[in-house]
Structures are given as C-alpha cells and as structure tokens.
Amino acid sequence: MVTHTFSDATQTEPGNTPLRHKVLVVAGMMTAIGGTLTGVMTYMNLGIAEGFLTAWGQAFLLASAVMMPIGALMMALLTRLAAVLLPSASEGQRNLAVGLVMAVVMESLMAFTTTAQQLGIADLAAFQSAWLSAFAAALPVGLTLMVTFSLTVKPRIERFLKS
Questions:
Q1: Are the C-beta atoms of residues 102 and 149 closer than 8 Å to each other?
Q2: Is the confidence at residue 163, as pLDDT, over 70?
Q3: Which of 8, 46, 96, 114 could covalently link to 41 via disulfide, CB atoms 3.0 to 4.6 Å apart?
Q4: For the chain, first and last CA: distance in Å?
Q5: What domain range includes position 144?
Q6: Total domains, the chain
Q7: Which helix (H) or strand (E) holds 62?
C-alpha cells in the first residue's frame, strides 16, 4: 500500500519559527505602542478636532518609518549594554532599566517628530512648549507600556525570536 503525504508549507519543525511570524509579532507590538503614544501626542498638540485621525495617522506613519527601526536597534544595543554595565543585576532588573531608558529616549524623539509634523518648527518657543506638553502627557503612558513590556513581554519575545 502506498501512502501519500502532503506537507503544509507553513508547517515548521519544533523550535524553528518562521521569520514572517517573528516580524508580525514585533510589528504588532510596535504598532500598539507607537499608535497609542502618537495618539496621545496628537491629542495634546491638536485636541479632538476635525482632521485628528488624519494627523494621528500621519504621525503614526512617520513614527513607524523612522522610530520603529531606531527603536528595534536601540533595544538590542541597550540590552547588551545593560548586560555589560549591570552584570550582577537580575535579568528583570536589567530589562526594567532598558525599558525606562527606552521610554524616555523614544518618547522624546517621537514627541519631536509628531510635534514637528503637526505644528512645524518655525516658532521655536511654540514648538518647544508643544513638544514638552506632548512628551509630558505621553511619558506616563509610555513608561507604563515600556515597564510592562520590558518585564513581561520582552523576555517572551526574545525567546520567541531565538526560536
């Protein structure tokens, strides 16, 4: 008797997660975080007014194109740097430190790009005030997201990405 087997091209061997799944997981996380933060920043810059969704979408696309690649690289570099600078700290403590630094740096840059796109930089005093307002409003949200992400999701994603 001859038995024919068909294999699904999407099946993989245990421990060998397809690259597209890894990309989708990371993109999903970045979309949730970036979308939330640019939404808060857009609200602080413009309020809920006509054109809010368009401005938010544009800010999110800019953050996606510019900030997400920088964030992914920065996360990897800061994780390595934390391992070198904090060798006696637990993995959780190092992840917390990385999360805090990531939140402050990435949000300040995201507030800059969002505010520059929405209000321009011609009036530096107005720009600085709006940037600070957007950053200050988004910081608690970002810190909460980054600390939660760093302590709970990041270790799982790192294991997933290594698979």
A1: no
A2: no
A3: 114
A4: 38
A5: 19-162
A6: 1
A7: helix 52-62
